[in-house]
Amino acid sequence: MGFFRDRRLSRWLxxxxxxxxxxxxxxxxxVDEHDELHQQVTGLxxxxxxxxxxxxxxxxxxxxxxxxxxxxxxxxxxxSDGDLGGLWRGRLFYFFLFGEESEILQxxxxxxxxxxxxxxxxxxxxxxxxxxxxxxPKAYVRVRDNGMIHVITEVATxxxxxxxxxxxxxxxxxxxxxGSMFFxxxxxxxxxxxxxxx
Length: 198
What we know:
198 residues, 37% helix
């Protein structure tokens, strides 16, 4: 929206030159009120003139992820730690925010079955083969105290500079779809005996 920036916007709106962009206000909330007004006016003018409004990157939050669930009619839950999760195709997926500013989005999936410790080497081979051939998701295992193995996937992205709604949509679907693809591959290696006719 470069056309509406700086003095051009002030001139176009009939404002005096000094009411153009100023240095950020160090107010209590850390938001420059002039910039906020500038963005609102720019958005209004763009809509009125038929220009395309560009979705600007914003910090990722649990609220934005919850809104994504609602837009896509997905059921989800919030656990006791405040983390979001849900079941997709019978597999548990969590949506975590890590980092000092909660800027790292991680979609973590867990296969819906466990593997015995005797199969650890072959499951690790399957994970390593997947990781060598594909970017997403990262696949690995966790050995529980009872000796059973959980198969896990992760897609993590550093969103330090924010993310648009479209980008967030793509990242969340990427975590779910690629995780599901890996779990489908594990299902082929280890078919569910209850799912096979006797």
